[in-house]
Protein 1
Amino acid sequence: MHNTLSRSTAFHPPAACAWPVWESSVGLTGTADSKLVWFFWGGPPTPPVPQTRGEARAGEVAPPSADTFQSRHRRRPAGRADSRPSPGAPGQSSAGTAAVTAGGRERGPEGESPRSCLSLGPMDRSAGACGALEGSSIGSQKDRVVTEEEWLQKWQTGNIGFHKEQGHPLLQQYLDVLLNGRSGLRVFFPLCGKAVEMKWLADMGHSVVGVEVSEQALKEFFVEHSLPYCEEPVPEIPGAKKLQSVSANISLYCCSIYDLSSSVVGKFDGVWDRGALVAVNPCDRQRYVSLMITLMQKNSSYLLVTVSYDPNKHKGPPFYVPESEIKSLFGNHCEIKCLEKVDDFSDKHRKWGLDYFLEVLYILKFVA
Ligand SMILES: C[S@@+](CC[C@H](N)C(=O)[O-])C[C@H]1O[C@@H](n2cnc3c(N)ncnc32)[C@H](O)[C@@H]1O
C-alpha cells in the first residue's frame, strides 16, 4: 500500500482511523495553469430583475441533480474554458464570457451584451449589485453575536435549515467562473457545515479543505456520502482535529476558522463562501476577511454568496451584508463583480417577518 500512490505523500499515523492512511501534500502550491479572462466592468445600474428560484417553468431547465452536475463538470483539461452550454445548464457562465444579467435563467438571447452589475461606490439606498435597491445600514445586526455553542446547539437539535441537501444551484451555474478553465484546484469551504458541494468538487478531481466548529456536521458529511475517513489531531491548533477522507482529497478541520492560518492549511486556488461570511458575527467580519485574504493564492477565484433583506425585520443569521461592505472589506485586494441576484424568498422568510429575501452572488478575483 505504501508505494501505490502516484502523488507526493508523507505517512502520518492517524490518531483514529478505520484504515491505514496516507496524508497527501498534493496541490499545496496550486500552480495550476491559469488563464485569466476578465469581465466587463462598470456600466449603468440596471433595474432589479432577480431570478426566481423554484420549480422549472416551461422552457426552463431545472437545476440538475448532483449526479448530473458531476458528470458534466468532471475533470476538465487545464487552461481550457468550456464553451457555453445551453441556458439553464450548470456552468453556463464561463470565465471570460460570464453573463452578468440580473435575470439569471431568463437571460437574453445569445449575443446580447452582458449587463455589468458592478456598482460598488458609496451607497445609501442607491442602485446596487445587479441593479437592486439596497441599503448600506445593517441596523441592529451590527451588535448581534451568535456563539459557537449556539451553532453546536443548532446541529444537535437539527435546526439546520441552512443546509441544502441538493447542493446550491448557484455553484452549479457558476462553477466555470470559479474554475476559470483550471483543473486540480485546492478549494476552500469556510464554515463548511456538511455542504454537499464539497463532495461534488472532490469528485471532479479537486482537493477540498473545509473548516467547521461542529464535529457532528463533519461526521455527518462523511457518513452521508459513505466516505471512509480518519481523524487526527492538528499539532498547531490545540483541541482541533482534522477529519480526512481516506482518499485524502477532502480534509475538514474541526475548529474555529480563526484558529487557521496559511501555515496550517496552505493557500487556495478557489473558495466557495456560502453561509459563511453571512454567518460570521458582524463584529468579526473584518477579522474573517483579513484571514481569508491571507489564504488566497495569486490568480485565485472566490465565489461569495451573500443575502439581502431588510435587517430591521430579522436579527440573523444569516446576516445582511451590504454591497458597500463587500467593497470595503475586499476591495483593496481583489476585483469584485456581482454576478447574479436571485429571489430566494420562501415561507421560512415570511415567518421571519420578511417580505423579500435575495441571494447575491459575487466573484472576487485575486489578481495581484
Ligand atoms: C449557516 S451555516 C452554513 C454551512 C455551509 N456553509 C452550508 O452552506 O451549508 C454556518 C456554519 O458555520 C459554522 N460555524 C460558525 N462559526 C464558526 C467558526 N468560528 N468557525 C468554524 N465554523 C463555524 C456553524 O457550525 C455552521 O455549520
Note: The longest strand covers residues 296-308.
Protein 2
Amino acid sequence: MKDLLSDKEVSTVISLLEEIYPFANCELNHRSPFQLLIAVVLSAQTTDIRVNEVTEELFRQYPDLDAMLELDEERLSVIIRKIGMYRTKSKNVMALCRKLKNDFGGNIPETFAELVTLPGVGRKTANVVLSNAFGQQAIAVDTHVFRVSNRIGIVSGSDPLKTELALMQRLPKEKWTAMHHMLIWHGRRQCFARNPQCASCGINDFCMMFRKAAVK
Ligand code: SF4
C-alpha cells in the first residue's frame, strides 16, 4: 500500500476538516502581536491551557513591551513558575523584550528572518506569529501537526522541518494557516498521541494509518 494520499484525497481531507472544525483558531489567549509572541515563546513543551493560566495574570499586570521591561528575570519567573522550563523562558522573554526595544524600535518584526533572531524564537514561533498576528500564510509544525499530518499521509516527514517543507509543497498556500490550526485541533480532540479515536474520526476514510490498520 502506498504511503501518501493523492492530491485529490488531500483536497478531500482539507474540506472535511473545514466542516469538522469551522472555527479552528489559535488557542493561546492574546490581545496584540506582542502578547501572542510572548505566549508562543512560553508555550514550548507546555499546554496552551497552562500558558493561558499564567498569561492571564502576566498580561493583566504587564500588557505591553514597555510594561514588561519593568520586570526582571527573577520577578517574571515567579509569575510564570507553573509552566515547564520557567527559568529559561524568563531569561529568553526578558532578552527578547530588550532586543525588541533596542533593535526593532519596540515593534514586532514582520519577517521570518527577523523573528528568528529573537531569543527563544524558532521556526514554529515565527510561523505562528506571522500567520496569527500578521495574516501571512504559514505552517508552524508543532507536535500535533507533525503527528497528525504524517499519520493521515498528507506528508511523510521524519522531523518537523521536513514535515513543514513537505506540507508547503502539498497544501495550497491559501490553506497553510487554516491547516495548521485544523491539524492541531484534530490532534487535541481526536487524533491523540496515545489512543487516537479512529473509529469515530470524520476523516478515517482518507487516513493512511487507518487504512493500514484495516488491512492487517
Ligand atoms: S483515523 Fe485515526 S490516525 Fe487517522 S486521523 Fe483519524 S484519529 Fe488520526
Note: Residues 151-152, 190-191, 196-198, 201, 203-204, 207, 209-210 surround iron/sulfur cluster (CB under 6 Å).
